[in-house]
């Protein structure tokens, strides 16, 4: 069962998490070639985290899957789930 764990230090209060879960589930299934019925998404907000020495808004994602992952798929997953940020 593919499982994408997403954590962010941003509060999810007032955020439409259903839309995030649905889109993430569809994207993982499509990119790794597994039925969406087997995909699990875990979304956690308000998780204390630091990135680059700051506590600015950040997120961490980790995908676990038996099969379906390779360097080409990893690049596609990274592109699909990465939000470009501005350098300091």
TrEMBL record:
<comment type="similarity">
    <text>Belongs to the MIF family.</text>
</comment>
<dbReference type="Pfam" id="PF01187">
    <property type="entry name" value="MIF"/>
</dbReference>
<dbReference type="InterPro" id="IPR014347">
    <property type="entry name" value="Tautomerase/MIF_sf"/>
</dbReference>
<protein>
    <submittedName>
        <fullName>Uncharacterized protein</fullName>
    </submittedName>
</protein>
<dbReference type="GO" id="GO:0050178">
    <property type="term" value="F:phenylpyruvate tautomerase activity"/>
</dbReference>
<dbReference type="InterPro" id="IPR001398">
    <property type="entry name" value="Macrophage_inhib_fac"/>
</dbReference>
<dbReference type="GO" id="GO:0005615">
    <property type="term" value="C:extracellular space"/>
</dbReference>
